[in-house]
């Protein structure tokens, strides 16, 4: 069982992702924005983060950059989940060291397989 942080301001998507992860034995912490995600990383010490890119205040790219700037979190797997599917967004995500990039709408089962792959690495 892994502890997974889900940061998404869309409560329906966050609930869907959390339910799929919990049904597969994971502990899930859900937050609604980037600032809460940064705080939750320190409090919950997740094994993996799923970040929406478009969130109020601090977006997913900013959270990714903040987490990657910390040496203690260098190995933390981070998945960006977003409606931004243009090539430039995908390229930016991987240049900024995201481990995976999933475009909405998405398959919860596919997301789960991607999460499991990252956790097993």
Write up what this structure looks like:
This protein has helices at residues 11-23, 34-44, 60-68, 87-95, 108-120, and strands spanning 3-7, 27-31, 48-52, 78-82, 100-103. It is of the alpha/beta class. It has a 5-stranded parallel sheet, sandwiched between helices. Helix 4 (87-95) links the parallel strand 4 (78-82) and strand 5. The radius of gyration is 13 Å and the shape is globular. The protein starts with a strand and ends with a helix. The mean pLDDT is 96.
Q: What's this model, at a glance?
A:
The protein is an alpha/beta fold and 121 residues long.
Structural class: alpha/beta
Strand content: 15-25%
**Could you give the order of the helices and strands?**
EHEHEHEHEH
Mind telling me the C-alpha Rg? 13 Å
Relevant terms:
121 residues, alpha/beta, 5-stranded parallel sheet, 5 helices, 45% helix, globular
């Amino acid at each position: 069982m892994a502890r997974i942080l889900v940061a998404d301001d869309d409560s329906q998507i966050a609930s869907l992702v959390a339910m799929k992860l919990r049904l597969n034995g994971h502990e899930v912490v859900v937050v609604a924005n980037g600032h809460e995600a940064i705080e939750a990383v320190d409090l919950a010490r997740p094994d993996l983060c799923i970040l929406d890119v478009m969130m109020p205040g601090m977006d997913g790219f900013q959270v990714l950059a903040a987490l990657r700037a910390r040496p203690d979190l260098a190995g933390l797997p981070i998945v960006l989940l977003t409606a931004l599917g243009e090539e430039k967004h995908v390229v930016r995500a991987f240049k900024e060291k995201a481990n995976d990039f999933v475009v909405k709408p998405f398959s919860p089962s596919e997301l789960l397989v991607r999460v499991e792959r990252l956790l097993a690495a």
